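Risk register update: the risk of archive-format incompatibility is retired. Evidence:
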Amino acid sequence: MFKKILIANRGEIALRIMRTCREMGIQTVAVYSEADRSARHVREADEAYFIGPAPATQSYLRIDTLINVARQSGAEAIHPGYGFLSENANFVEACEEAGIIFIGPPAHAMRLMGSKIAAKQLAQSVGAPVVPGYTGESQDDDTLLREAERIGFPLLIKASAGGGGKGMREVHRQADFLAELAGARREAKASFGDDTVFLERLLIKPRHVEIQILGDAHGNMIYLGERECSIQRRHQKIVEESPSVALTPALRAEMGHAAVRIARAAGYVNAGTMEFILDSDRHFYFLEMNTRLQVEHPVTELVTGFDLVRHQLRVAAGETLGITQEQVTQRGHAIEVRIYAEDPQRQFLPSTGTVSTFVEPQGPGVRIDSGIESGDEITQYYDPMIAKLIVYGEDRPAAIARLQRSLAETAIFGVTTNIPLLYDIACHPAFSEGYTHTAFLDEHGLLAPQQDVALPDEVLIAAALYENQLPSARQPASSDGNPWHTLGPWRMLGEARTFTYLYHEQEYTVSLTPVLTTQLAQSSNNNTSETLKAQNERDLQSWHVRLNGKDQGILQMAIGNSGRMVLIRGVRQQRLFIERQTGTIQVSLNGRRYQLALRQPPDVEVSARGSGSLHSQKTLTAPMAGTIVKVQTQDNQQVAARQVLVILSAMKMEHTITAPYDGKVRRVSVKEGDVVKGGAVLVEME
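Archived output:
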């Protein structure tokens, strides 16, 4: 077995590999870019080497640098994780030439299966069904348009070298084909350095089911059950589970044997995944192979009991699997969700910044794989995934209940996340009943911005009670006589303290009046004895609360670590998480974060301008740092509302900047190829 390996990756997958290595007595070497100097995977490795600037092309994708670090550190092998160079056959060959073992498949198998076109042709040769489409060599526009007309619409344009939804476009009308083709090619070229595409008939509401395979260099090959990954956004999986409710034992065996046949024909060794599509009639079709460890591998580990990284290392070291197909069984049910730093209210644009607080859920059957902890930064340079939450239960209903509970107990401050979406999915009746497919989110309207999210009373009350105990809420006015400098958003009204908040332009006031023990004893509240007992035992202050003038009764509050807070009403307790930031109070309740704006001193300039409606927007800015890949307007051009003006590429995805109204472009401030910062002015309107 190896004594030391280099992990050519970062974040949660690097940490996950390190944990297994530590159990096996293997030392680990981390690599890091300028942006990752203080990253968690760097802190937890046995050795760490700097490899270059923040952009991945100048650090994590530098084959020569990684090979040099492996030699310098004395690492015998390199584990690529997923993403970056994990499916780069040139990297595999460079390792071989340097006498370093690559923990993954051989280069010839990776190159063969890395081409979706070649992989589909191989699958057909061993009798595995494939989705009808075009996988020919000709890539000119006329040929592809002609083949698209033959296949019929709707269809998919897919990057041959792609993965993770990059370079993929749905096309529902012939008129849109060439524009979508150009976009798919641009994204494929930027992500994989190869703009070759193929066409595939778009199946309506299919399930996405994949088979995990594992093979050694001695001819042994097995499959370890399936994972259903049907719930996706932009062709990117966000919920994965095992086993799939759609598979019977016979169908599972049929798909597993097909996966093994394809892998054997490719000369595959190590861990890999065969992806299939399952239609409504339970007919399956081969899609592609991922020649690496999958992001969602933990669900397979939980239901089979096998550590896939451990077996990857053993196979790479030349050992036999030591597992027969008959020894593989699935027990219980596992579900994984991917927690991303992204804003559901802004079309899920990545949310960069520092994670000020990350409260992880705990309990039996709960696993968190993360490369982020409180104080770490989400940058523009890499994938915005914060963590994978994986739960296990004795059956699917138990796993779903555990998922709901775990999401409700997760709190992240500092960046916006998709936890509300994940919680909505976990609680949706269709998900509980197993009616999932690749259009699940669109069908149930779960991606639409939720402008009218009800604001629970507990959020406002918790914010006021929390602010009330801050030092600034108890200090006298400052010597300069300006109460705004010390009093915060409250003022004295007799013995009451009043706090004012704004939420979605609606003002709310919370009044707190101290309640003495003698007053509690005289109260007619049904929970008087319990409230008195709690107050005496915990030495908590009691407050009579009014919200917008409406009586809320007598409440108390207890604050723990990491912003944990318990709102106490008699014997009833409500758990929340809370954090005060500049100008805001943020409260997390049941996985959903509410941001309350604090009342600020009057601003004459803002008052004079008014609220600033959509039609008063004069400048269009970059939602985040990125590269301008397309400018589709010019100075003094008349444009229509929602017309695409600029396309920005960031975090390997394209983001469109559209006209907010019918009007005129006064000035375009960027050109194609420009690298811009978040907030940079792109277009000026009039």
